[in-house]
């Protein structure tokens, strides 16, 4: 048995599934996890000394590549000054100013410790601000694991959400309405029935938790229009897209401005950070100024802020990085599609900028239903082959590939060669 297998045997006896987050268990591809010891640039190294070209990037944060020197230096310096004070610090002001400067729709921001917490708080704020209870979410979009967002994939006709997890009382999801991604009609139906009760529509501006599904032209604009018509708030969950598609996120990329935005992943540079922000008028309802309670012992933690600020500052100072990354990614995903086409497979490669997904289906993927037509067993075979040949992919058909600035053309071409081998 190798080190990873030995560790996994121990892990399952002391942690549910041997992991601290379910997808890491590799259950959906029928294998067991590699235990990672270190990472640098675009590569991961496991406990057995194997090297992998990494296409997860810690699920997004590592847009500069792993163990970026400047980020590590700033974190090390911050550590020496103390890990946490539970008090106001200059570095929090710096982070807030930076976020407000980078994202035009944000006039005030609150830092939290995860994407889940950011979304949960933004929903509470939207409800507090509008005095309404109902929210609309899209089937196949993921917004963290807070109770009201763990609803079963539903059809548009359902007037209240059904819990998708044990331990979530029906009362927690009854005000969560489901709509279909890229389908404005399913949204309009809800608004026609109970528009005056809808506090907010929450959406991933690029859906990146059912593979990668781009918004159709007019979809995000349509959401904005209908929200305005009914006095509801539009929330963009930019936990993945924020600072990834461009420095101003999906809202800059598509030119549609939400009322509230949530962040996670990249904003923390690899540390546990989330944030939510928006118009001053709405944000001033958050405690201690307003009546929407929200707090956090470690929120705005100085070490986490140091990592995030350093990464964001590098990205801000190098706008050409996004041009390069997105161009390299376009080329990479196009080459992938060509490789599969040449081999006679009409599998779908969806991508937006550096986010991409290979779906094992011949159907165009535009929403959850079409994503579900993928052959997940075919994906598992492909994923395991790639892993065995040193390409570390997210072990699920319904997760994205994340490219980083450390993915050189050479490394991407090496990966493409392994894909070519696979189809042969
Ligand atoms: C990852 C993710 C979350 C949850 O963030 P955590 O930090 O894992 O709690 C929320 N929304 C989206 C779009 C995500 O991708």
Structure notes:
This protein has 424 residues and is an alpha/beta fold. The protein has 2 domains: 3-55 and 319-423, Aspartate Aminotransferase, domain 1; 69-317, 3-Layer(aba) Sandwich (Aspartate Aminotransferase, domain 2), CATH 3.40.640. Helices cover 38% and strands 14% of the residues. It contains 14 helices and 14 strands. The strands form 3 sheets. Strands 4-10-9-8-7-5-6 form a 7-stranded mixed beta sheet, with helices on both faces. The chain has a 4-stranded mixed beta sheet with strand order 1-2-3-13. Strand 11 and strand 12 form a beta hairpin. Helix 3 runs parallel beside helix 10 (302-317) and helix 11 (319-342) runs parallel beside helix 14. 49% of the residues are buried. Residues 114-116, 119, 142-144, 204, 209, 237, 239-240, 264, 274 line the site of pyridoxal-5'-phosphate.
* Main structural class: alpha/beta
Radius of gyration, in angstroms, nearest whole number: 21 Å
pLDDT below 50 for ≥5 consecutive residues: which ranges? none
Total of DSSP H or I helical runs spanning 4+ residues = 14
Helix content: 25-40%
Number of strand elements:
14
CATH class of the largest domain: Alpha Beta
Name the CATH superfamily assignment of the largest domain: Type I PLP-dependent aspartate aminotransferase-like (Major domain)
Query: How is the biggest beta sheet arranged?
Result: 7 strands, mixed
Blueprint (SSEs and pairs):
Layout: H1 3-14, E1 36-40, E2 43-46, E3 51-54, H2 69-80, H3 90-102, E4 108-112, H4 115-130, E5 134-138, H5 170-173, E6 176-179, H6 184-194, E7 198-203, H7 219-230, E8 233-237, H8 249-254, E9 260-263, E10 274-278, H9 280-283, H10 302-317, H11 319-342, E11 348-352, E12 355-359, H12 368-371, H13 376-388, E13 391-392, E14 401-402, H14 409-423
Parallel strand pairs: 3-13, 5-6, 5-7, 7-8, 8-9
Antiparallel strand pairs: 1-2, 2-3, 4-10, 9-10, 11-12, 12-14
The structure holds pyridoxal-5'-phosphate (PLP).
């Amino acid at each position: 048995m190798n080190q990873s297998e030995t560790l996994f045997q121990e892990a399952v006896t002391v942690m549910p599934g041997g992991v601290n987050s379910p997808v890491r268990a590799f259950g959906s591809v029928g294998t067991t996890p590699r235990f990672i010891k270190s990472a640098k640039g675009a590569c991961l190294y496991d406990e057995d000394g194997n090297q992998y070209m990494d296409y997860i990037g810690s699920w997004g944060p590592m847009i500069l590549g792993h163990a970026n020197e400047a980020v590590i230096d700033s974190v090390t310096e911050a550590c020496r000054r103390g890990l946490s004070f539970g008090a106001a610090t200059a570095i929090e002001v710096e982070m807030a100013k930076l976020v407000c400067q980078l994202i035009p729709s944000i006039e005030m921001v609150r830092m939290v410790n995860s994407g889940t917490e950011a979304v949960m708080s933004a929903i509470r704020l939207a409800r507090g601000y509008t005095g309404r209870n109902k929210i609309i979410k899209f089937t196949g979009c993921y917004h963290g694991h807070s109770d009201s967002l763990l609803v079963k994939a539903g059809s548009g006709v359902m007037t209240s959400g059904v819990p998708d997890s044990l331990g979530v009382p029906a009362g927690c999801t009854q005000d969560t309405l489901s709509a279909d991604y890229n389908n404005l009609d399913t949204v309009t139906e809800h608004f026609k029935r109970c528009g005056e009760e809808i506090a907010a529509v929450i959406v991933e501006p690029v859906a990146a938790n059912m593979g990668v599904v781009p918004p159709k032209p007019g979809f995000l604009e349509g959401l904005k229009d209908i929200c305005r018509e009914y006095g509801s708030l539009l929330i963009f969950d930019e936990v993945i897209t924020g600072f990834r598609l461009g420095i101003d996120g999906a809202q800059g990329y598509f030119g549609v401005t939400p009322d509230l935005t949530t962040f996670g992943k990249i904003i923390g540079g690899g540390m546990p950070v989330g944030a939510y922000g928006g118009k001053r008028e709405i944000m001033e309802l958050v405690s201690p100024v307003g009546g929407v309670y929200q707090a956090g012992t470690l929120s705005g933690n100085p070490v986490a802020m140091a990592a995030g600020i350093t990464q964001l500052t590098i990205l801000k100072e190098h706008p050409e990085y996004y041009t390069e990354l997105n161009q390299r990614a376009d080329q990479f995903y196009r080459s992938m599609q060509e490789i599969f086409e040449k081999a006679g497979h009409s599998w779908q490669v969806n991508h937006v900028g550096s986010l991409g997904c290979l779906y094992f289906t011949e159907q165009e993927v535009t929403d959850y239903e079409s994503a579900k037509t993928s052959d997940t067993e075919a994906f598992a075979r492909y994923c395991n082959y790639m892993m065995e040949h040193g390409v570390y992919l997210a072990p699920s058909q319904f997760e994205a590939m994340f490219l980083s600035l450390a993915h050189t053309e050479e490394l991407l071409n090496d990966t493409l060669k392994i894909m070519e081998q696979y189809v042969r």
